[in-house]
Specification:
14 helices, 7-stranded mixed β-sheet, Aldehyde Dehydrogenase, Chain A, domain 2, globular, Aldehyde Dehydrogenase, Chain A, domain 1, 498 residues, binds 2-aminohexanedioic acid, single chain, alpha/beta, 6-stranded mixed β-sheet
Length: 498
């Protein structure tokens, strides 16, 4: 590959596209075409993080003084640009991350939805007034931005997750340093270009690329950074949360999942199978809301397994750019190694591999990181494949003798992100809703996704800090200030609170 043809992408600091201090770059390749270099990207270090934070700090006063409905104008323009450029951005996601084009288009749509929703907040961003206990006193609350906020995002939703942090953070008047996953910097550049062209003032949104290890700490520790919004692994999130808490910063972490579907005997089996196959194997299982466990009521277990294997065998595996493909490559060699490691471990632990289990080679498969959709049965609750997030197309199946046992299995993991039950029995559905340990609960629907005007996030090791999206996003990205105004014409005899 002639490196002269490879585009070198830069950091974006203070409204300028700049090289990192060290001048070093790294290449990115496509998951479906390992030898195709998509670009060279900056290997930023602590000094670049510091420069980006300073640029954000310098822009803070101007942006936070801009009325929120005027800030919304920039978001509405960004929305228009995303609409015009949606196809190109979706293609970039597929080429860089690997997911099928239809999923990438859905991801761009979600970025547009959150941008539109956040822009609308520019004309709400409510505080409240309430009677004071003192005469001639007016009491109310008002929102202020946190200040400079670090946005640290994963590779599996390289447009939607940054958008659902950046748009609400901007409307609240914060200025940002955006550090995308090192595997998907090209999508990040495309997103920043959208906001730049929408007229965001210099320094309001800054981008630095490179490995988290070299800039993550620098961002979290910088005293000018007042908030951190992170999505990624529970391990890294725990470190960021702990470090941020010690420095008294506002931190939100969205982390792993081990999401279970409970399938009761009275359910619409066809509907349930559709949801389970899509959520387990779609996006190659690389989604924190993917279904990685199914807990099936004994009475329908055999029937379910037969149909599950039949449907899974019909999935087409291939390059995400092929419109007929259901399961595209994993995003990288390291993901392939992790997933294959878990598959080997499942067999060693004594689970029964009933479908898939192999990485694929030959023909187009040699160009990418392909693995078969994989199903394990006879999984014991304490096995690692039953407990840990695999982040690949691996489904573990359990049997239960009824709802209670099923809920007990569902809750028996450290995670608590998303969950689902399939049943037509309203009483059982509510028993489930009220006891399942998950931040997002679905009835007769897949564990996937969420709507941008509703909160997104999990319990236990899946999430900490305020939820993302919905009005909770405004709560996270703003400080609430309480104001008391004494408007009496003369001094009060006893101007004191009870
Ligand atoms: C979705 O499943 O549609 O990292 C969104 C993740 C989640 C977002 C998932 N934070 O996969």
């Amino acid at each position: 590959m002639a490196t002269s043809q490879v585009t070198k992408y830069k950091n974006y600091i203070g409204g300028q596209w700049v090289d990192c201090e060290s001048g070093r770059t790294y290449p990115i390749t496509s998951p479906a075409s390992k030898t195709t270099v998509l670009g060279e990207f900056q290997i930023s270090g602590p000094e670049d993080a510091a420069a980006a934070v300073q640029a954000a700090q310098d822009a803070l006063q101007g942006w936070s003084d801009t009325p929120a409905p005027v800030r919304a104008g920039v978001l509405y323009r960004a929305l228009e640009i995303m609409r015009e450029r949606g196809d190109d951005i979706a293609r970039t996601i597929t080429i860089e991350e690997g997911k099928p084009l239809a999923d990438a288009q859905g991801e761009v749509k979600r970025a547009m939805n959150i941008t539109e929703y956040a822009a609308g907040e520019g004309r709400r961003m409510f505080g409240y007034t309430t009677p004071s206990e003192l005469p001639n006193t007016f009491a109310y609350t008002v929102r202020r931005p946190l200040g400079v906020v670090a946005i640290i995002t994963p590779w599996n939703f390289p447009i939607a997750i940054p958008a659902w942090k950046i748009a609400p953070a901007l409307i609240c008047g914060n200025t940002l340093v955006f550090k995308p996953a090192s595997g998907t910097p090209l999508s990040a550049v495309k997103l920043v270009e959208v906001f730049e062209e929408a007229g965001l003032p210099p320094g309001v949104l800054n981008l630095i690329t490179g490995p988290g290890s070299s800039v993550g700490n620098a961002l979290v520790e910088n005293p000018l950074v007042r908030g951190i919004s992170f999505t990624g692994s529970t391990e890294i999130g725990t470190g960021i949360y702990t470090q941020g808490a010690a420095l008294l910063k506002k931190v939100q972490c969205e982390m792993g999942g081990k999401n279970a579907v409970i399938l009761l005997a009275d359910a619409d089996l066809d509907k349930a199978l559709g949801g389970i196959v899509q959520a387990a194997f779609g996006s190659t299982g690389q989604r924190c809301t993917a279904t990685s466990r199914v807990i099936v009521e004994e009475a329908i277990y055999d029937q379910f397994m037969e149909q599950l294997i039949d449907r899974t065998s019909k999935l087409k595996i291939g390059d995400g750019l092929d419109p007929d493909v259901d399961v595209s490559p994993l995003s990288s060699q390291s993901q392939l190694d992790i997933v294959m490691g878990y598959i080997g471990m499942g067999t060693e632990e004594g689970a029964r591999l009933v479908y898939g289990g192999k990485s694929l080679s030959g023909g187009i498969f040699d160009d990418g990181y392909y693995v078969e959709p994989t199903i394990f049965t006879e999984v014991a609750p304490d096995m690692r494949i039953a407990q840990e997030e695999i982040f690949g197309p691996v489904l573990t199946v359990f049997k239960a003798d009824g709802l209670e046992e099923a809920i007990q299995i569902s809750n028996n993991v450290k995670f608590g992100l998303s969950s689902s039950v399939y049943t037509k029995d309203l009483t059982k559905a509510f028993q489930y809703i009220n006891t399942v340990e998950a931040g997002m609960v679905h009835v007769n629907a897949p564990t996937l996704g969420g709507e941008v005007h509703l909160p997104f996030g999990g319990l236990k090791s899946s999430g900490v800090g305020q939820r993302e999206q919905g009005t909770e996003a405004v709560d996270f990205f703003s400080e609430v200030i309480t104001v008391y105004i004494d408007h009496a014409g003369a001094p009060r005899a006893q101007a004191r609170f009870i």
